[in-house]
């Protein structure tokens, strides 16, 4: 799986439809997962990825040939793709699954993306480091492993040199950041400090309705998205009990003794 021989870059941005970050999450009555009958929007880290692809084209001008977005999800997920198109992507691919099917796991998503990348001849994948619903943070790493491509995770700055077919990435690590240089093709996962996504304007929202959106099924890519894990039960965390105030240390010690705590 090699990039195109030309120096023009083909960028793929995977996005996910997730419960909106402002929604208060509640467990559904069946205790099989969270209540999904709420507002959904694009995963915030994926918004950053779309914005970075658009900004990269502005910086590199004619060196970027195309920006394509892809999602795996039910029919309603096409709304998320239209949002990405309004932000500046050129075209979209919707790998559609039935509404009743469970959300695919990171390995299944990575396998589907790997098949799609082979078909589309992608040079650079920019994707969110994690989704705010499952918080797995695994798909980008699994995708790079399946493709045998370099990976730059938790990117807070991205510079691409199309001539040299390389990228320099500043990435977040414990205690600071590190700078790494990678060859293309490359998988990059985005951190919060990479950029601040802009809102799509009304004219761009209208234009997005005319941009191409291709629909596929997992079978079209010869991928099985059947989950490998089974969720037995989902419950709310126990209610937190409010604390109390004490006037002095003696009162604190007395209350601790009442609660059964003793000095070692």
From TrEMBL:
InterPro entries: ET-Flavoprotein_bsu_CS (IPR000049), ETF_a/b_N (IPR014730), ETF_b (IPR012255), ETF_beta_N (IPR033948), Rossmann-like_a/b/a_fold (IPR014729). GO terms for biological process: amino acid catabolic process; fatty acid beta-oxidation using acyl-CoA dehydrogenase. The keyword Cell membrane does not apply. GO terms for molecular function: electron transfer activity. Pfam families: ETF. One of its GO terms (cellular component) is mitochondrial matrix. CDD domains: ETF_beta. Its cofactor is AMP; FAD. Keywords: Electron transport, Mitochondrion, Transport. It is found in: Mitochondrion matrix. Binds 1 AMP per subunit. Binds 1 FAD per dimer. Residues 32-225 form the Electron transfer flavoprotein alpha/beta-subunit N-terminal domain. Belongs to the ETF beta-subunit/FixA family. The electron transfer flavoprotein serves as a specific electron acceptor for several dehydrogenases, including five acyl-CoA dehydrogenases, glutaryl-CoA and sarcosine dehydrogenase. It transfers the electrons to the main mitochondrial respiratory chain via ETF-ubiquinone oxidoreductase (ETF dehydrogenase). Heterodimer of an alpha and a beta subunit. This is Probable electron transfer flavoprotein subunit beta.
């Amino acid at each position: 799986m090699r990039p195109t021989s030309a120096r023009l870059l083909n960028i793929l941005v995977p996005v996910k439809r997730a419960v909106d970050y402002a929604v208060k999450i509640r467990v559904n009555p069946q205790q099989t997962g969270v209540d999904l009958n709420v507002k959904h929007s694009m995963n915030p880290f994926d918004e950053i990825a779309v914005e970075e692809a658009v900004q990269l084209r502005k910086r590199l001008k004619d060196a970027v040939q195309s920006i394509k977005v892809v999602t795996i999800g039910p029919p309603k997920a096409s709304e998320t793709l239209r949002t990405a198109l309004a932000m500046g992507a050129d075209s979209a691919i919707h790998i559609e699954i039935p509404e009743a099917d469970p959300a695919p796991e990171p390995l299944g998503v990575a396998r589907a993306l790997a098949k799609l990348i082979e078909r589309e001849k992608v040079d650079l994948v920019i994707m969110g480091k994690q989704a705010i619903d499952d918080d797995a943070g695994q798909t980008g790493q699994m995708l790079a492993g399946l493709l045998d491509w370099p990976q730059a995770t938790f990117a807070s700055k991205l510079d691409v040199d199309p001539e040299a077919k390389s990228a320099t990435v500043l990435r977040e690590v414990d205690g600071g950041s590190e700078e790494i240089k990678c060859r293309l093709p490359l998988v990059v996962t985005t951190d919060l400090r990479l950029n601040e996504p802009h809102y799509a304007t009304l004219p761009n929202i209208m234009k997005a309705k005319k941009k191409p959106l291709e629909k596929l099924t997992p079978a079209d890519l010869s991928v099985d998205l059947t989950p490998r894990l089974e969720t037995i039960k989902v419950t709310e965390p126990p209610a937190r009990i409010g604390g109390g105030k004490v006037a002095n240390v003696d009162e604190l010690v007395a209350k601790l003794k009442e609660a059964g705590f003793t000095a070692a």
